[in-house]
Amino acid sequence: MHDTITTRGLAVLGCGKMGSAMLAGWLQRGLAPSSVWVTDPHPSDWLLSIDGLNLNVGFPESPAVVLVAVKPQMMADALPGLTALGGRDTVFLSVAAGVPIARYADMLGENTPIIRSMPNTPAAVGKGITALVGNDRVNEEAMRMAEDLLSAVGQTVRLEHESQMDAVTGVSGSGPAYVFHMIEALAAAGAAEGLPTDLAMQLAKATVAGAGALAEAATETPAQLRVNVTSPNGTTAAGLEVLMDEAAGLPPLIRATVKAAADRSRELGQ
Ligand SMILES: NC(=O)C1=CN([C@@H]2O[C@H](COP(=O)(O)OP(=O)(O)OC[C@H]3O[C@@H](n4cnc5c(N)ncnc54)[C@H](O)[C@@H]3O)[C@@H](O)[C@H]2O)C=CC1
Ligand SMILES: O=C(O)[C@@H]1CCC=N1
């Protein structure tokens, strides 16, 4: 873990599902709990069980990073307490959906290095992907430090423009929920075809996990991997005829799903 973080400390504002997934990754990578300060009015049992963590005792005077992981709707209550840390070299790293860098800069001062990021919950098992974009106060060293932190829980990608963040949120931030729903729907369909519920769920989970792993590992495109499953005039072709229907199949449904999520991200930014 980056030396600056160990010496100056890492502050976490809000440590629910996302904050905890990230903190778990950092602790696993060897960050000492004594280097971490967490403020959360409702700490989980997991947080309470971490020996040496600085929990709800305020933040150090000049932490290397402040991770902001409260809900966008809580931001107005949570952030004003941190204005004293703004305008210096403490890097603010936000994971909040929709909240633009400008809103942090308004509260913390224009001179504050602010990185807006969008992780996702597979971070909890080290398989997340986080997109990042910083304001012009974020130098290369600060960006690398953030990437180093986030790479503890999966892949990272830099965005060229903050405006891309709403689409990213619609695809990879919210995306795990779409895939979990796919598992639910696949299992329910298996049960409707006569399988015991548990068996249908086991088949659905393993199929989605296996297909995801193959899509990541293979040199072929997902389209080719799909073709590889599809025997001419076989079972997959019959299924895909329904799923790939241009008017009523998955493409228009996923298009509308991602648009709704991206639109909501834009709305949260208003
Ligand atoms: N859950 C997800 O899949 C993802 C969430 N995010 C973003 O992460 C942020 C947090 O989301 P979750 O972890 O899902 O929510 P959560 O509800 O699990 O966590 C939020 C935490 O903030 C704490 N909190 C509330 N008021 C506070 C205050 N004034 N000061 C400090 N802490 C306070 C709550 O006690 C809670 O533990 C949101 O902004 C969300 O947009 C980003 C990517 C994915
Ligand atoms: O639903 C949300 O608003 C958050 C952001 C992306 C995933 N969960």
TrEMBL record:
Amino acids binding NADPH: 56
Keyword line: Amino-acid biosynthesis, Cytoplasm, NADP, Oxidoreductase, Proline biosynthesis
Pathway: Amino-acid biosynthesis; L-proline biosynthesis; L-proline from L-glutamate 5-semialdehyde: step 1/1
Chain segments annotated as coiled-coil in the UniProt record: none
Keyword Cytoplasm: yes
A biological-process GO annotation: L-proline biosynthetic process
Alphabetical list of Pfam families matching this protein: F420_oxidored (PF03807), P5CR_dimer (PF14748)
Similarity field: Belongs to the pyrroline-5-carboxylate reductase family.
Protein name as it appears in the record: Pyrroline-5-carboxylate reductase
Species for this entry: Meridianimarinicoccus aquatilis
Gene, per the UniProt record: proC
